[in-house]
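Late entry, evening session. Most of the bench is empty. Finally got around to the prediction I had been postponing all week. Sequence below, unchanged from the version circulated by S.P.
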Amino acid sequence: NRSVAVFSHTSYIDFYLFLLYFLAYPRRLNHIRTLMKPQPFQYAGWLLRRFGAVPATRVDEKNGGAVSRIVRDLKQWDKCMLLISPKGTIVKQEWRSGYYHSAKQLDAHLLVVGLDYEHKYPAASEPIFHKETESEVRDLLFNDLKKIVPLFPEDEIVPIRTHTHRSVI
């Protein structure tokens, strides 16, 4: 089955930690694809694709056909999980709608995943389905996202408590 997992992207450290998980558990994580900014694909696309990266559109581009391209690429997999940061950047910004439209076109459920830097473990929510409206789905995802403390919670539009202990990893 397919799923779209949203995560709070507030630091580039997340990518490197994901890479370490991927290298440590390649068979368990080989179905994961992660949406990534397109610039690095110009010089390391072959390597990034090897680790399941999928090029996104630039943050300032809207309606560029990325959802259709991504869905077309992911439909070749019977089982896949697309990791996506709905804001498309590490800075505080409103969510874009690609996560919702991708899930709808893939007929995939949605969930929240992330590295909880306060408790120091990867976390995941229960899946929800895209049958509700985009705003209803976003509200459900916001509620789950609040429970996972990213490295820099102040850079997320969802109100997340700050770390009780301000330590990195």
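Two things to note before I forget:
The radius of gyration is 15 Å.
The CA atoms of residues 116 and 149 lie 5 Å apart.
Will write this up properly tomorrow.
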